[in-house]
Amino acid sequence: MRAFDLLQPSTVDEAVSLLQQHGEEARLLGGGAMLSILLRQRVVAPGYLISVTGIPGLDNIEATGEKLLLGSTATLRGIERSTAVKEQAPVLAEALHLVGNVRVRNVATIGGHLAHADIHLDLPPVLTALEATVIVRSLAGERRIPIDDWFVGYYETSLASDEMIVAVEIERQPTSLHGAYLKYCSLSPNDWPTVGVAAFLSADGGTAADVRIVAGSVAERPLRVADAEALLQDRPLGQEAITEVGRMYADAADPLPDVRGSADYKRKVTAVFVRRAIMAAATQAGLSIGE
Ligand SMILES: Cc1cc2nc3c(=O)[nH]c(=O)nc-3n(C[C@H](O)[C@H](O)[C@H](O)COP(=O)(O)OP(=O)(O)OC[C@H]3O[C@@H](n4cnc5c(N)ncnc54)[C@H](O)[C@@H]3O)c2cc1C
Predict the structure, then answer these.
(1) According to the model, what pLDDT value does residue 111 have?
(2) What is the average per-residue pLDDT within 107-129?
(3) pLDDT category, 5, cuts 50, 70, 90?
(4) Res 291 pLDDT > 90
(5) How many whole angstroms from its chain centre is CA 154?
(6) Contact residues for 100 (Cβ-Cβ < 8 A; gap 6+)
(7) Ligand 1 mutation pick, 40, 41, 60, 113, max ligand atoms within 8 A of CB
(8) Strand, coil or helix: 195
(9) Atom nearest to 136 CA in ligand 1
(10) Local confidence band at 65 (pLDDT 50, 70, 90 cut-offs)
(11) What is the distance in A from the centroid of ligand 1 to the CA of 212?
């Protein structure tokens, strides 16, 4: 591993000035769970690491009225255990419980998770379905980035090199909206997902409304297929339509073949898990499923 200087700012202003000062030579350090591996493998070799976990208050989890604000250094475990998160974004708390193992969740931060942007992450599908906003800061001020614009490609986000994530904002999940996150691992059960699907909907009389389906790990960005969601919108749910929606997601997926399975296999499990996630959301919403 290349030798580096560890910088430990005590405010966000100080952190972003260090970023500005050291430019491409610097790298932000969150929980370090992922970065320590990348440093050892020499995938990255910065001269300066700017550790942000010592900044007081940056790990706060606040429920303000209709919004949840997750500070960027809040650990995944802290968010998973937060009463406010369990009440206002229950599916997020459930998904967090499935991330890696408790040792990883104890150190990994939500800021590091979003900045890492591996396609095999559990939270992007849920945060996309919940229409979260990523809040970033630089010396120029604050920028609010809708999650739809956050993930740009493999390990790529819209974060500029002089910016850091300071928080993630999520609207309170409406009480009428019900959902589920299903994770499928073809290797060990606490592996990164082969496919992860978040599905949300609400029941409007006997019909499905506000349908949101997002598949993760099977494309370079969290995958949402508007035409497929529209097939279920404002009508009673039927097995045939749900199966067709699964097929449409499988067709739209562009998975990478790897140790977790071939591209074809991943498309097949995408169809299955999209279908199962919709059925789980329908059960939560109390909607029955016809033919
Ligand atoms: C063994 C292992 C198993 C895992 N399994 C899973 C899994 O099953 N599912 C899953 O979803 N995830 C999994 N993860 C990933 C984990 O959820 C986190 O995404 C990862 O650890 C990054 O968080 P971190 O705080 O450790 O970030 P770090 O390792 O500190 O940093 C990661 C990247 O984020 C940048 N960064 C850190 N903080 C900020 C900030 N505030 N602003 C801007 N950039 C920042 C760093 O510069 C770096 O590029 C696993 C990780 C490990 C090590």
Answers:
(1) 98
(2) 98
(3) very high
(4) no
(5) 14
(6) 108, 190, 192
(7) 113
(8) strand
(9) 42
(10) confident
(11) 26
Token pair of 215, please?
Answer: 């598949």
What's residue 73's pLDDT? Answer: 98
Task: Give the span between the Cα atoms of 68 and 103, in whole angstroms.
Answer: 25
d(CA 154, CA 108): 20
Mean of all residue pLDDT scores within the chain = 96
**Cβ(12) – ligand 1 distance below 6 Å:** no
Residue in 6, 7, 25, 28 to alter for ligand 1 test, most ligand atoms within 8 A of Cβ: 28
Q: Which domains does the chain have, with CATH numbers?
A: 5-51 (3.30.43.10), 61-171 (3.30.465.10), 179-290 (3.30.390.50)
Task: Write down the residue that tokens 């990255």 correspond to.
Answer: 44
Calculate mean pLDDT across residues 211-224: 98
Ligand 1 within 6 A of CB of 167: no
